[in-house]
Amino acid sequence: TNKITIAIDGFSSTGKSTLAKQLAQHLGYVYVDTGAMYRAVTYYAMQKEYITSAGFDVAALVNDLPNISLQFQFNQALGFAEMYLNGVLVEKEIRTIEVSNFVSKIAEVSEVRAKLVEQQKEMGKNKGIVMDGRDIGTVVFPDAELKVFMTASATTRAQRRFDELVAKGDAVTYEEVLKNVEERDYIDTHRDDSPLVMAYDAIAVDNSALTREQQFAVVLDLVAQRT
Ligand code: C5P
Prior knowledge:
The protein is an alpha/beta fold. The protein has a single domain (5-224), classed as P-loop containing nucleotide triphosphate hydrolases (Rossmann fold). It is 47% helix and 19% strand. The protein is built from nine helices and ten strands. It has helices at residues 16-27, 34-47, 58-64, 97-106, 110-123, 136-140, 154-167, 174-190, 212-224; strands spanning 5-10, 30-33, 51-52, 55-56, 70-75, 80-85, 88-89, 129-133, 146-151, 203-206. It has a five-stranded parallel beta sheet. It has a three-stranded antiparallel beta sheet with strand order 5-6-7, with helices on one face. A hairpin with a 2-residue loop joins strand 6 and strand 7. The protein binds cytidine-5'-monophosphate. Cytidine-5'-monophosphate (C5P) is lined by residues 12, 34-35, 38-39, 103-104, 107, 133-135, 184, 188. Keywords: ATP-binding, Cytoplasm, Kinase, Nucleotide-binding, Transferase. It is found in: Cytoplasm. One of its GO terms (molecular function) is kinase activity. Residues 6-223 form the Cytidylate kinase domain.
């Protein structure tokens, strides 16, 4: 069968990455988590103190962008790629609630988006890729053969993200996680550059009431129709 490009977009914590990983593994495709890239830039900006609870020095970050190198490296044992920032593994550091609280601010900056989108297009030029994010079907791969737009209720999503963080030993409250999910969704859908919106030719999948297996079966069927 011929290799296609699969774009998965949607709100925070809709299970995009779970689905994308399942698909990539099953099809032998490359999986790219673009959220990890925005998170790594955020982590960098926090380390350099361009972003603190006191404010955000956008100009300083933009000026420093050429010094940020992002790389995915496949981890055989885990079965997926991990994020490296300037050669350092940051997979754990980029998943904290602190990074989650700032990331949508970083993702509003056009210069940041331009840099990451260019790298994402490059990664997908040979197809056989599953990419998840907020602007994949609209901006990164507008010609993708399959575009999925995932949705689920905010409370379902917050509960999932909360369970994930607690399992990792993070001291967070459900209310804090729900607030973060709602704030990110608001910023992501209202920004000027590449707001989160469903592509006209995307297929909406609401997984509030679907198990992982059911959701996978639905999307696999869509893939089969296109390969
Ligand atoms: O997917 P994840 O929740 O890890 O993404 C973190 C944040 O990165 C999103 O809330 C959004 O602000 C930003 N993002 C984006 N465009 C993408 C992927 C993520 O703006 N393609």
